[in-house]
Request: fold
Amino acid sequence: MGKCRYQNYDMQSAVHCYGGHVRENMPTFAMLLNVAEILDAIRNDPRVRDALRQELLSQDLLELPERFAEYMASTNARLDGLTEILAQFMASTNQRLELLEEG
Reply:
């Protein structure tokens, strides 16, 4: 059997890749490939990788990168606000300490 190309993912391509013979209850195209070819397709073809993610991951996991980016943005905004509050507090504390030292 020759090396298959990953341009078409239909049964006709699977039959061609398998040498033109159709077996009874033929498995999906992916079953006809060896493990190295499957891994190669996952690593090198974004369409295969995305299709695999859609099949294997829950919607919650698929949305996780976007949700994490939103969380990071809101956390950074809160930290920026806290940093400003802390700087103001430190400045007012230093001013009060200076007044105490003088008086």
